[in-house]
Design brief:
Elements: H1 38-50, E1 60-66, H2 72-86, H3 108-118, E2 124-128, H4 133-146, E3 152-159, H5 163-172, E4 197-203, H6 206-212, E5 219-227, H7 239-253, E6 262-264, H8 271-284, E7 293-296, H9 299-302, H10 309-323, E8 325-326, H11 337-340, E9 345-347, E10 352-353, E11 360-367, E12 371-378, E13 396-404, H12 413-416, H13 437-440, H14 444-447, H15 452-467, E14 476-481, H16 490-499, H17 503-509, H18 515-521, H19 524-534, E15 540-544, H20 549-560, E16 568-575, H21 578-581, E17 588-596, H22 597-603, E18 609-613, H23 630-640, H24 670-675, E19 705-708, E20 713-714
Parallel strand pairs: 1-2, 1-3, 6-7, 6-11, 7-9, 14-15, 14-16
Antiparallel strand pairs: 2-15, 3-4, 5-12, 8-10, 11-12, 13-17, 13-18, 16-17, 18-19, 19-20
Helix pairs in contact: 1-3, 4-10, 7-8, 15-19, 16-17
């Protein structure tokens, strides 16, 4: 049962708002006391233990999978002004001291704090792809190694979100087990059991690990990620979406899926989810000969650790291939019908020796909202060397833009960026956010329960995608930079006030928590709604990196586009946290569509700017008032420099490269260039040939993202 003191109310909840169970898998021992939430100590501890002695920490990156919900520390930080305003004292909400700034960034904050404590000089960020987050973080780590940007890449994951919110939220989603027992693949299963924990794995390129004398526990062959695509019910799993991610992983590994011997499944103990996963695996393994593949799920041992679930499953699969053991399906005593009738898969009552010479396993993780991930790994055989080619990160082309920034004054950004946004002014707030429910088929009653940053990101993404030419939704992903909105924490304050005998004040702070409000608060749903509404089947997830969240999303897009199956990525950032906890410079939301530059030029797309992603600069000190959209707002400012030439018009060069309005370092006129159908997409700058990017000092952001074309413009 929930440990004493974890919730502001008793295990039975408050009147009318009671979790369906208080049974879970809790971590009783916290990290050493500090001013921050225990989550911060958990992350630092597992990353410290995972780092090999041979690690070059200056070239070590960290990708943390962290659920975008408030921690208890954040709840108490948000409660302080409320308690002062209401004039009440609630001991459970009290803090001994003012909250550190990172407490209000419960996804990126733990990653940043761990990197600072351990002296990691590489890329640091947090990812939220719901229950698939751990394997999405693994994919990010693999990509950083493949591009040569890191010598060591750590993928970590943790779940210690405020457990009152987590239990009540899962109860509102009708996912919790009332029996409190996790039974994946069992016909008696009645839902998931929430678990806590943290895990980290350190990765190196195989040749580097062998040269450095590191122990090799297993070899990762590939990680496939994707989305369900167009869907109505954001919580319903899709066998087709899962199957696409599985096939993508095996295709990238250059192997046939029939070669797998063990699959560590996502299976959480929900009837719909477990049945869907078995059907997807049967389709993947059709035609397999020999013994059935053994299925298992770590949820029966540690509960559903949400963002940490994928890496928990990875540890089990690594142990299986390393130790030559096919694991038992713990908790599955009466297999459900889909398992009994399956031909290609089975469950083992007891662990069994794994006698195959080549031992290959797979790990799956699927998240609510439609995020899917699948990993292919195998046992390492000394003396066997696998080629690890360095994957070049492509230059990007921005082919569509949409934004809501108060400096626009309501003007369409596609026109505003050509005249300039004007200087930044403090205190610019987005006055209102509205969407047409008919456009997105969202019931009007649910719109009010969705956070403004989700709605504005969805609206802008739809606008940007509509402006992007020849976009193939099946080959397009979405990566958006967001941080947890403090407003989400207010419902826990509501419960604390109700428990303290102040129901009227509780109602004044926040309304009751319902299913739509839970979905409307999750950062990963910002990207997942975009994918579901627009039918995008590429990977969709949220990224948090403080003020660099938007440009970090650009960096993720560049590495995703190094993988040929993906054609485009919707990149964005939104921060509408309001004046109490929000950015000092105001609010903003920006969405771009990016493609590989070579593809955009070959297709004749209008290119607003070219983007080159370089290594990240050192992290600046954490400051008050940063915005997750800061970086992409600076991208908009950079796009100003590409405004049209002031002349009355242009004459076509008719293929001779002599446009009267030259596109190049002198004028930066993208309109004249693209208006000429002979020069469109060729980079012509008149008779002098291809335009040469001319660096413009003072415009860089120091964050490793540079815009170019008429010059090197700051990317924030």
């Amino acid at each position: 049962e929930v440990p004493a003191g974890r919730w502001p109310m008793g295990p039975g909840g408050v009147a009318g708002e009671a979790p369906s169970t208080a049974q879970g898998a809790f971590v009783d021992v916290d990290a050493p006391p500090c001013a921050l939430d225990p989550l911060f100590g958990w992350v630092e501890r597992v990353v410290r233990v995972a780092l090999p002695d041979s690690a070059d920490r200056e070239r070590t990156s960290l990708a943390l999978a962290c659920l975008g919900l408030p921690t208890t520390g954040m709840v108490r930080a948000v409660a302080a002004p409320w308690l002062d305003h209401l004039g009440v004292d609630v001991p459970w909400l009290a803090r001994a001291e003012a909250p550190p700034l990172l407490e209000l960034a419960p996804t990126w904050g733990p990653a940043r704090a761990a990197a600072d404590a351990l002296g990691l000089g590489g890329e640091v960020d947090a990812l939220d792809a719901a229950c698939a987050s751990g394997l999405f973080a693994l994919r990010a780590a693999v990509d950083r190694l493949a591009s040569g940007e890191a010598r060591v890449a750590v993928a970590a994951a943790a779940n210690r979100a405020d457990s009152a919110y987590l239990f009540e939220g899962f109860s509102r989603l009708m996912a919790m087990s009332r029996s409190g027992v996790a039974r994946p693949f069992d016909e008696r299963a009645d839902g998931l059991v929430v678990g806590e924990g943290a895990v980290a794995v350190a990765l190196k390129r195989l040749d580097d690990a062998l040269r450095d004398g590191d122990p090799v526990h297993a070899v990762i062959r590939a990680v496939g990620v994707g989305s369900d695509g167009r869907k109505g019910n954001m919580l319903s799993p899709s066998a087709d979406g899962q199957l696409r991610a599985m096939r993508a992983a095996w295709r990238a590994a250059g192997l046939v899926p029939q070669a797998v011997g063990v699959v560590e499944c996502h299976a959480t103990g929900t009837s719909l989810g477990d049945g869907t996963e078995v059907r997807a695996l049967e389709a993947l393994l059709a035609g397999r000969e020999g013994a059935p593949v053994a299925l298992s799920s770590a949820k029966a041992l540690v509960g559903h650790t949400v963002t940490a679930a994928g890496l928990a499953g990875l540890l089990r699969a690594v142990g299986a291939v390393r130790d030559a053991v096919r694991p038992a399906a713990i908790g599955c005593e009466r297999p459900r019908a889909e398992v009994r009738e399956a031909r290609a898969v089975t469950v083992l009552a007891e662990a069994a020796p794994w006698d195959d010479t080549v031992r290959r396993a797979a790990v799956s993780a699927f998240g609510f909202g439609g995020t899917n991930a699948h990993v292919v790994l195998e046992a390492f055989h000394p003396g066997e060397a696998l080629p690890v080619p360095v994957r070049e990160v492509p230059r990007l082309a921005i082919v569509a833009v949409a934004a809501s920034e108060p400096a626009l004054g309501g003007e369409d950004v596609a026109h505003a960026v050509t005249r300039g946004l004007g200087p930044a002014r403090p205190g610019r707030w987005v006055p209102s956010v509205s969407v047409d429910p008919w456009r997105f088929k969202i019931p009007p009653v649910e719109v009010a329960d969705i956070l403004p940053q989700q709605l504005i990101a969805l609206e802008l993404a739809a606008d940007a995608v509509a402006r992007a030419p020849r976009l193939d939704p099946a080959r397009t992903g979405a990566v958006l930079g967001v941080e947890v909105d403090p407003q989400v924490a207010e419902v826990v304050i509501r419960w604390a006030l109700a428990e303290a005998g102040e129901p009227a004040l509780a109602d004044a702070v926040a309304p009751p928590l319902g299913s739509a409000r839970v979905q409307g608060a999750l950062p990963n749903f910002v990207a997942c709604r975009v994918a579901a509404q627009l039918g995008l089947e590429g990977p969709s997830y949220a990224v948090a990196a403080g003020p660099r969240s938007g440009t970090q999303a650009l960096r993720h897009a560049a590495r995703l586009l190094a993988d040929a199956p993906l054609d485009a990525v919707v990149v964005g950032a939104a921060d509408l946290r309001g004046p109490r906890f929000g950015p000092a410079e105001g609010e903003a939301a920006v969405v771009l569509v990016v493609r590989r530059l070579a593809d955009a030029e070959a297709a004749g797309d209008v290119v607003f700017a070219e983007v080159t992603v370089g290594p990240p600069a050192p992290e600046p000190p954490v400051a008050v008032g940063w915005s997750a959209a800061d970086g992409l707002v600076r991208v908009l400012a950079g796009l100003q420099s590409r405004r049209p030439c002031a002349g009355a018009g242009w004459r076509s060069c008719r293929g001779r490269g002599s446009c009267s309005r030259r596109w190049g370092a002198s004028t930066g006129c993208w309109r004249c260039r693209t208006a000429c159908r002979w020069c469109r997409g060729r980079g012509s700058s008149g008779g002098s040939g291809a335009a040469v990017p001319v660096p413009r000092p003072g415009c860089g952001d120091g964050g490793g993202v540079v815009l170019s074309g008429d010059g090197a413009l700051g990317g924030g």
